[in-house]
Amino acid sequence: MSIQIDVSRDKRGLIRDFVYESLKKNIMELRLEPGRFISEKELVEMLRVSRTPIREALVKLTQEELIETTPQKGSIISLIDLQHAEESRFVRKTLESAVVREACELLDKEQVLHLQNLVSLQELCESEQNYGRLFELDEEFHKSIMIGCGRDRTWGLIQQMATHDNRIRILRLASDSDWKIILAQHHGIVRAIKEKDPDQAEKMLRDHLELVVIEKENLKQKHAKFFK
């Protein structure tokens, strides 16, 4: 995968935010692959900024477990930690299962239509084989359910723990272009919410979040060097 840098950043924005967001996007989308060594010099040349925002971004990414820094080796893109990913998935499944039941009572017709529109956009991503945008829309789909139920802080909590699990999800999308089961599950979740069927909504959501678990071993075999 080639590294992508958005050089058309808003000049009003802070350079450190641009550096952090650019690096995180490339790490999450595996363009900066797990286990890869990156130097400050390389990042300065890549992003065309001074060392200070680079160092600030590396500190923040280290706190998020996406970078490991050692005195001897410098900065390395962290390997995917399956134990951390599983813990994140447990928290997400527990919280989202409860919230999707609430969604069957709380979401109005306009909010359900928004979910349907997101799935339609995901289908367009499938036709264009755009896994990066599909992941973004997948996140927006789940976020919309949480926010629609007034669970903004709950969604924020899930995101704090999600870095390792999200990289596995992106790796799955990048490794297998057959995304029909994901889209079918999203359709099922929306249908259950629309029909106000909390049991079916929870079942569809749990099946959806377990999908990567089922495929985990296959991903480990294909990309062994990416995993801790």
TrEMBL record:
Domain HTH gntR-type, first and last residues per copy: 13-80
SMART domains (UniProt xref): FCD, HTH_GNTR
Keyword Transcription regulation: yes
Iron-sulfur in keyword set: no
Keywords of this entry: DNA-binding, Transcription, Transcription regulation
SUPFAM superfamilies: GntR ligand-binding domain-like, Winged helix' DNA-binding domain
Any Pfam family hit: GntR
Signal peptide: none
Superkingdom, taxonomy of origin: Bacteria
Gene3D superfamilies: GntR ligand-binding domain-like, Winged helix-like DNA-binding domain superfamily/Winged helix DNA-binding domain
Protein name stated in the entry: GntR family transcriptional regulator
